[in-house]
Description:
The complex is a heterodimer of chains A (about 325) and B (about 775).
Chain A: E1 2-13, E2 16-27, E3 31-36, H1 42-49, E4 57-62, H2 71-77, E5 78-81, H3 93-101, H4 108-118, H5 132-144, E6 150-154, H6 162-177, E7 181-185, H7 189-195, E8 198-203, E9 206-212, H8 213-219, E10 220-227, E11 242-249, E12 252-258, H9 262-270, E13 274-280, H10 284-292, H11 297-305, E14 314-316
Parallel strand pairs in A: 3-7, 3-8, 5-6, 6-7
Antiparallel strand pairs in A: 1-2, 1-4, 8-9, 10-12, 10-13, 11-12, 11-14
Chain B: H1 8-47, H2 50-86, H3 88-94, H4 99-131, H5 144-167, H6 171-198, H7 209-237, H8 256-267, H9 278-288, H10 291-308, H11 318-336, H12 340-344, H13 347-353, H14 358-387, H15 399-422, H16 426-454, H17 462-467, H18 474-492, H19 499-520, H20 535-543, H21 570-580, H22 584-606, H23 615-638, H24 642-658, H25 661-666, H26 668-679, H27 683-689, H28 691-698, H29 703-725, H30 734-742, H31 748-752, H32 754-772
Amino acid sequence: MNAIEIKGVSKRFGKRSVLHDVSLNVPTGVVFALLGENGAGKSTLIRGLLGYHRFNGGSISVCGYDPVRQPLEVRRRVGYVSDAPSMYEWMTISQVGWYASGFYPDGFLSRYDQLIFEFQLPQEAKIRDLSKGMRAKVALALAMAFDPQLLVLDEPTSGLDPLVRRSFLESMIDRAAAGQTVFLSSHQIHEVERVADWVAILHQGKLQVVAPLDELKSSISMLSFSMRDSLLALPAELDRLERLHQTQTGRTFQIMARNVDESLLASLRLNSNLFDVKAIRPNLEELYIGFTQPMRETDLSRKESSLGPNPSESTDVA
Amino acid sequence: MELTTRASSFAWVCLMWKELQQIKPIFVAVVVTLLCIQLICGAVMQVLPSAGRIDSYQIMLVVSGLGPFLGALASCGMLFGHERQTGTWNWSSSLPIPWKQALTAKLIASLVVCLALLATLTAIPLFLLLSGPIPEAELVMPPAYVLFNGGFILLELFVILVALTLLMQDALTAMVTGCAILIALHSIPAVFTIREVMSGGGNATLYPSTVWNTLVSLSLLVGTIGMILVFRWRWGTGQSAQLLRWKSSLPAATTMATALAATSLNLTPARWGVAPSQKAMLWQLSWRNSLMLRLAIVLGTFALVAINKPYLPDDSGTALRFALNHICAATCLLGLTAFLADQTRERYRFLSDRGVSPRILMWSRLGPPLVIATLLLVATVAWYLFTGPFPGSTTAPNVFECWGYLLCFASLFLVGAFSSLSFRSNIVAAVVAIVTAGAAAVLLGMWVAIKEELIRISSPTIVDWFVLPAGFIVTPVILFTGICLSSPRWIIDRDAPLHRPYLWCAALALLLPLFIDATFGYLSVPKVAWQGATLQEVDAVVHSRPAIEKVAKLFGDLEVPQLFDEPDSADNALIELNEQLSNTEQLDSLLTGCETRVNQMLDVLSGPMQADADPVAFDRDVGRWIEETALLAKLAMQHGRVELSKRAWRCNRMLQQSCDPITWMKTKSSRQKARTVWTAFGMSEIQALGGRDFTAETMLPAQHDATMGDQLQRIAATVTRELVRGNPSIKEAAARTAAYRTVSELDPFLRFYPPLRWRVERGRAAALAGSLE
């Protein structure tokens, strides 16, 4: 059973459309990373997962429950940390835990105390006296203390110090290994890359890609080459590629594309106008940029038909 | 972990603990403030005469009744509005708490708070009632239906406020709107009823119970259903969801940077190519701060004024005063909007980072609401001026009353502004401002009690209306100073404990005017009218007392005092006196000598008083003369000497007329005897004397007694006051001799605190008057 099943959901606020026909499934026991620029619709999607609003179309299932109709069941199974967790400022750390323990199964408080100890937080400090990072730690402890089936984290590592961040991310891997699911959105792409099993990239409300990270990395290559005579057109073999992103710096091109195979590389290397032809596996950040800054047809055609730019200029095709 | 939830009782415990802890600080603040007011009322009761205590006690009861309403406001604000504005609503609603449980816990907490407030604030009045200082018979308790209606209105207020607070984005706007809706709901039917009655179409019932019952039932039902539905929706959708979305005039940004950028896009005259200055930008933003709330306040106030205008008589200043009271409340709320938006968005941090001067910021924030409040006031007054009977009305507020109102406006505006500056939470700031304004109103009532009961000034004079309210000018001065001193810390330090200076300033601003006026209010006493005459006149009477040593012995050779051993036995005295007369010629010579001596005595009475005069001997001699002349008149009439009798009565009258108040009182028994003698005259004898004309000429009018009694009291009070002040010039006077016998030395503390000294003076004056009487 998938922890999360989203089928064709859309969301509009007034006339502004925030999500367009988003569909994805999050398998159980994985760390699922949702990436996207500011305003891409990540928080809207996450809040929808918790039943905070109805979508304008499509269906959604979290841990087998409809979050709109059965929000309580969802919240009993989902640990949620928002991007700006606001707890009662007048409570102490231990009081927050005690208060929350009233609504969760037995064992919550001891686990919470253990997490607070691990995070090296003072039990009797009031929330109002905590720094942003310390508040984030308290929110994480509250969300993880009842060992939820699904952990939904909206920018969870924002404000955390490097040590805690590393520790926290490693604990996410352990959690996934134990059969629980972690659904997180973050801008810390390098860190996500270390822990995420699955990645989804949301751009302007549209889902660009959903795939296991390893599979995504293996299917996409970063092809780079230089041209001796930049006035000439690009080789015709490149038309076979599903190009995601392309940049040109002087006479050097970098193309992110699917279906880059050895035969293509061999063909390009035989082209006398090209030299220094190589293909590398992109990292997640490059993939993210590739998906969130897609090429437009007009740009492509203009570049391909151009006689070549001024060598002193560096032009981002997108 | 297995999904077996805990016992629901523990969840209830956690929820109730959280709700009660959430509201505890504001509950404590409300209780402490209202208890302090009650204790002040109690202290004033102790120094008031028994007749004035009941008013002070009624104020305590009003405060007790006010408690649950403030509790409802605080509960609504803290448990619903504050949770949303601080963002904890989202976290709470992300926990697996059923919405029914969450709502029930909040309702129970609100109920507990209201009941606790009621119980706490009823304790002192109940104790006073049971322990005896308050006579139960004099207590005017509201009828039972008023209490029931009050309870229903409390419920209505609560459900409407909760529903609107959950529905609208800004809790304070919601609460203001809710209050306006509630007042309008209950005012409109009354107005329609009055109009119907005035047009002759309805009965005389001002507010029919059927209308009331229907209105309350409907609004309670709709309000409760609305509250439940809105709570369920809000709990499920989070703190920032909106039912209706419209394009706001303000950008939806939550940071100052984007707000400034967006504002500059909207407002900057880019076509002129001139960037606005920092001051201009601050001013523009300040106008837009809490725009909806300010609009709601202004429109709500105008609506209330308009609704109530036909409700009140036009031919007096009552309607205008009523409207001004509305403006007072609106001014406080407008003051509250001064720093509100900066707190909500933490805009002050952005301003602080950009080095905005606290002084410029403070003025830019205070300016717009102050301008709006002034315009509101001017518009309302102008409306009444053009539509009312002013300025011809004699009951219109005079210039001194207007001065008092201006002080009220300034004070309430600054209370609102200072609380919005000192409390980061808008709801807390609003509740604190309301409580402070309420306390100010009660203390103002206390001042009236002190003025009328303790200092006993009851007539409007320039002193009463101008000098004494001048003490209240310290209130806005203190509050404004507090704002000036707090604004630099407010803008720089997010965690600065600004509530401390607020509490100090508010306490000082409320209590200092009372202290000042109570201390210096006695200065106005000699200048105000007191029982029909000024104290200067009374003093003049005291200083023109006759020289008693010049009084000659009357009837020097005649032993008559023994005749009056039995005072009421005028007949016996006459018989005995008659027996002493050998012939009627002796009567002639006796009366002639009597007239001569009376004339001499009257000359003495009109002269200056001697320091070594013996008042006791003087009063005794005058009394004896009054009796003697009356007896002589009767005796002469018995002997058929009509002219002689007339002369004797004229002497009697002149003596009585010439008496000063103390002598008048001391000769009370003699005058009674003279009256007894007069009643012994038969009708034929009176006719022989001249009938009604002679009676009218001879007998003193009935009000003479009252006038002399009043003068006596004033003299006694003046004498005692001078005595207490240690005035040596009057110390040796005769009346003071009597006063010395009745009063003891003062406590030194009383000498240095005029209100208490004045109270002791009055008490001793009354005691002296009583003893002399």
